[in-house]
Structure formats: C-alpha cells, structure tokens
Amino acid sequence: MNPPPREIMPIAENDAHTEWERYKHRLLAHLPRWSTRPLFWLMAEEHRLVRLITGILMLLGGLFSFLPILGLWMAPVGIVLLAEDIPFFRAIGLKGMRWLERRKPDLFRE
Questions:
Q1: How high is the pLDDT of residue 55?
Q2: Where are the alpha helices (DSSP H) in the chain?
Q3: Residue 5 CB neighbours (<10 A)
Q4: Which DSSP symbol is given to 69?
Q5: Residue 17 Cα distances to 36, 38, 71, 95, angstroms
Q6: Other residues' Cβ atoms within 10 Å of the Cβ of residue 37
Q7: With the C-alpha atoms ordered 17, 22, 27, 28, is the resulting torsion angle positive or negative?
Q8: Cβ neighbours of residue 83 under 8 Å, at least 6 residues apart?
Q9: Spatial distance between the Cα atoms of 110 and 106, rounded to a whole number of angstroms
Q10: Are 84 and 58 in contact (CB under 8 A)?
Q11: Residues 75, 62: contact at Cβ < 8 Å?
Q12: Are 101 and 107 in contact (CB under 8 A)?
C-alpha cells in the first residue's frame, strides 16, 4: 500500500534541498575569491531579510535588462538568492543548475 502524500513531501523536499546545497557549494568553489565573501555573507541565516530584498531586486533588474546598467545576468543571481528561502525558486534554480551541469560539467566537479 502506498504511503499518504503527506509523508512523501518532506523527504522529497529534503532531497531537493540537499541537491541544491551540493550544486551551490560546487559552483561557489569556482568563483573568484573576491566574489565569494559577499555571497557567503548573504547566504548566512541571519541575513535572510537582506538576501530576500537583494534577490527580489536582482530578479527585477534582470526583467528590466533592456535598460542601461541592468542586465540579464541579474535574474539568475536573484533566483539563486531567493532559492535559499523559497522552495518555488529552489525548484527553478535546480532546473537551471541541472541544465548548466549538462552543458558545463567542469563547473560541478570537486
């Protein structure tokens, strides 16, 4: 007999969170040192509000990439920041990370 869906959801969500952490840490390992310090600061639990505001602003900046100064690169950064706290964006981020891993496997090697 199949278990009720309520019991399956936390396990699946936990697996997605673990996979997200693996992708995030491997990708951060390839970034220049000067960029990782601010990102690790933003990823800290105590900076959740700053991370959410920054993620929303980056996502909006990506949507308005046709304007000067703003760029399309801002949208994925916003998704990564929002994925730390919002499962919907984690699912989008995981799809993007899986796609990126298929295209650039060297980015995710340890």
A1: 94
A2: 5-29, 33-43, 48-63, 74-83, 87-103
A3: 8
A4: S
A5: 21, 22, 28, 13
A6: 9
A7: positive
A8: 20, 89, 90, 92, 93, 94
A9: 9
A10: no
A11: yes
A12: yes
Buried b (16+ CB within 10 A) or exposed e, 52-78: eebbeebbebbeeeeeeebeeebbbbb
Question: 82 or 8: which carries more pLDDT confidence?
Answer: 82
Taking only the tens place, the pLDDT of each residue in 60-85 is: 999 888 888 788 888 888 999 999 99
Tell me the per-residue pLDDT of 44-60, one tens digit each, with 9 for 90 and over.
Answer: 899 999 999 999 999 99
Give the C-alpha separation, 33 to 76, whole Å: 20
How high does pLDDT run on average in the chain?
83
Task: Band the pLDDT of 11: cuts 50, 70, 90.
Answer: very low
Q: Are 97 and 23 in contact (CB under 8 A)?
A: yes
User: What pLDDT score was predicted for residue 43?
Assistant: 87
